[in-house]
Design a protein that fits this description.
A hairpin with a 2-residue loop joins strand 17 and strand 18. By secondary structure, this protein is an alpha+beta fold. The chain has ten helices and 25 strands.
Length: 486
């Protein structure tokens, strides 16, 4: 198989689902774009999307809900300077496409009539990071119900203190087609699955919860007995550990973050601040800092959309640009930002494959894919042993960040108090408060145990939610503020 064959196969799939049933072909797309590209319009694109999604959830021993949906439509966009005209429709007929284009053109070009020549047809470069199939069909309905029931059986069999199990299974088949005014044609076929569970443990009238799960761009068969067992064990152990937790101490202290999902702090506190729109507008704490030291030596942060089968990965982004492995911070020095086409053009740089949108009804924005910090050379146990008095946080719940100041607040869902290099007891109610840029400069030890999250991340920005990945090695940060309950 040649490098182009998967790309052409995806284009054929997109044509069969999004164009042919409605009497459309590439000629109609070019005519539409030609109509939009009036004087003063710098760029234009069409974004077609077909999405089939299914969900199942189990609670109290029975599957209480199931959902299935099909959505399709097209978004039509014209860009002039930093202004965007946009219209979308769930009707894929030629008439609806013409109407949307007319509305966009009128807004973008103030009704001028002269046409602008389009670029020649060119198939976009793309990667082949995951298989092109419908994961919904990878298991039948009976098998999906049995999978959720098995999750509950395994959880309750682990410990009699597990009194409740909630589990959910989600699958999505997403096909997109992008046509741009420069002649670019791109398509992607994106499978996505996720298994999530939460257990509640009870002891002496006290109830605590633990959660786990995972997923990615693969089929449901990946959730075999061994994988389910890992998720269940993680959730049960978290709940049982939390039963023994004490109120968290407060104050400024050394904090060690565990590997994997704790990288969500990096995603929120640093990643969003490195998105191109915030930096073009000068509203990020990292604006104007390219080439400057923004983190301690040894800190290298990547955003990588090219990892096979990962939840945040893309063959092409939602503007038809191939995904990339972008070095954002290298050995503590800021090297670049995440760019979509609009912000890249205005800043005079190249797009980085990070133009993403929730659906055809949304505009693309510069967004993260899989964001993580590279490993260092320290043994994780050595890092924990280095703590005189402080906190070891192995898992996180929610968090938020102020882009302009870089300040963040995060809640630890699983953490331990540490004294003289030894875990003393689990704590509850710990929140980490700090500044992303300052926290990066306080990184003093970096573990050799880089891990990516299990495939559960969802990122929100301007009302749009997207699947993402995070990761990091064990990390020691000196002098973070911990808001506790003790």
């Amino acid at each position: 198989m040649t490098a182009r064959e998967p790309t052409l196969a995806r284009l054929a799939t997109a044509h069969s689902l999004l164009l042919e049933p409605y009497g459309l072909d590439e000629t109609h797309l070019r005519r539409t774009l030609s109509h939009i590209m009036a004087p003063g319009v710098d760029d234009a694109d069409l974004y077609f999307q077909y999405t089939r999604a299914e969900g199942w959830s189990l609670e109290e021993g029975i599957v209480k809900s199931g959902s299935f949906s099909i959505d399709q439509g097209v978004g039509v966009r014209a860009v002039s300077g930093d202004k965007t005209a946009f219209a979308y429709s769930d009707d894929l007929s030629w008439t609806a496409l013409q109407d949307a284009a007319q509305n966009v053109r009128a807004i973008a070009a103030q009704g001028q009539q002269r046409q602008v020549k389009l670029g020649a047809r060119k198939v976009a470069k793309a990667r082949s990071l995951y298989q092109e199939f419908d994961p919904i069909a990878s298991l039948d309905s009976a098998a999906k119900v049995a999978l959720l029931e098995r999750v509950e059986q395994l959880a309750k069999a682990q410990d009699p203190r597990i009194v409740q199990v909630m589990a959910s299974l989600a699958s999505e088949y997403d096909v997109v087609l992008v046509a741009r005014a420069d002649g670019t044609l791109a398509a992607d076929v994106r499978p996505l699955v996720r298994l999530s569970l939460t257990v509640i443990a009870e002891q002496g009238g006290r109830r605590e919860s633990g959660s786990s799960g995972g997923g990615g761009r693969f089929g449901l068969a990946r959730f075999d007995e061994a994988q389910i067992g890992l998720y269940v064990n993680e959730a049960v152990q978290a709940a049982l550990t939390n039963l023994e937790s004490r109120p968290a101490p407060a104050g400024e202290m050394t904090v060690v973050l565990g590997p994997g999902w704790p990288g969500v702090l990096l995603h929120e506190a640093v990643g969003h601040g490195l998105e191109g729109d915030f930096n073009r507008k000068g509203s990020s704490a990292f604006s104007g800092c390219i080439g400057q030291r923004v983190a301690a030596k040894g800190v290298t942060v990547l955003d990588d959309g090219t990892l096979a089968d990962r939840r945040g990965s893309l063959n092409v982004d939602d503007e038809g640009c191939a995904s990339q492995r972008n070095v954002l911070i290298e050995d503590g020095i800021l090297r670049g930002y995440l760019q979509d086409s609009l912000n890249a053009r205005l800043l005079g740089v190249k797009p980085t494959g990070n133009g993403r949108r929730e659906s055809y009804a949304h505009l693309p924005l510069p967004r993260m894919t899989n964001t993580y910090m590279l490993a260092g050379d320290k043994d994780p146990q050595e890092i924990i042993a280095s703590i005189k008095r402080g906190l070891y946080a192995s898992n996180f719940g929610g968090g938020q960040v102020d882009i302009t100041s870089g300040k963040f607040v995060f809640s630890a869902s699983q953490a331990w108090w540490v004294e003289d290099g030894k875990l003393q007891y689990p704590v509850k109610g710990a929140t980490l408060v700090g500044s992303g840029p300052q926290a990066l400069k306080k990184v003093s030890l970096i573990g050799n145990d880089l891990a990516l999250d299990s495939g559960v991340g969802t990122c929100g920005k301007e009302g749009q939610s997207l699947p993402v990945g995070v990761g990091q090695p064990t990390l020691r940060i000196d002098g973070l503020t911990v808001g506790g309950t003790a």
